[in-house]
Amino acid sequence: MDHNMQKKTRSFLIPAVMIVIAVVIIAVITALWATSAFRLPFARRTPPTTFVRGDFELFYTLQTVVSVVNTTLSIILLLVYVNIYRKTHSEFTIGLIIFSAVLLLQAFVSLPLLHRAFGFYDFGLGPFVLLPDLFTCVALAVLLYLTFEY
Asked: How far apart, in whole angstroms, are the C-alpha atoms of residue 72 and residue 39?
């Protein structure tokens, strides 16, 4: 019994560590890209000329990082659920595939880099630009944990 518990823990620990490492690497690369001079030369709208109180570039950089992490977690979940469906052909798994695909689309569309590509900028939102993506990230992390736990 104790050997089976150690085997189950080890089989969960390896993918979990790999996912955490991948997400951290992607987050660091995205943060460096979002804050560096490597920005893509998109057509930009001019920002407001007046100072918007409580609006810092840090919030938008963090939103970029969190959105990329959400996209990564959604892709991982989608691949896991497709793999489960291939093995079980369960209707419930089809629902999970649709759910994770919608979360993937939501994460992709919320990328500030995509907004900038189409010439839009967020101004004056302060920390509220980051909060929805942060809550989505927590929900995706819990869903990923529960997926690998059982």
From this structure: 21
User: pLDDT tens digits, residue range 123-133?
Assistant: 666 677 778 88
Cα torsion 92, 93, 98, 100 to 10°: value is 120
Residue 120 near residue 42 (C-beta atoms within 8 A): no
- Write down the residue that tokens 């089809």 correspond to: 94
In three-state secondary structure terms, 52 is coil
| Cα separation values, 52 from 13, 44, 47, 124, Å | 45, 18, 10, 5
- Distance CA(119)–CA(113), nearest Å, equals 10
Task: Go through 129-148 and write b for each residue having 16 or more CB atoms within 10 A of its CB, e for each that does not.
Answer: bbeebeebbeebbebbeeee
Residue 129's Cα: distance from chain center in Å? 15
Residue 24 CA to residue 14 CA, distance in Å, equals: 16
| Of 46, 11, 42, 49, residue with least CA distance to 148 | 11
Q: Is the pLDDT of residue 37 over 50?
A: no
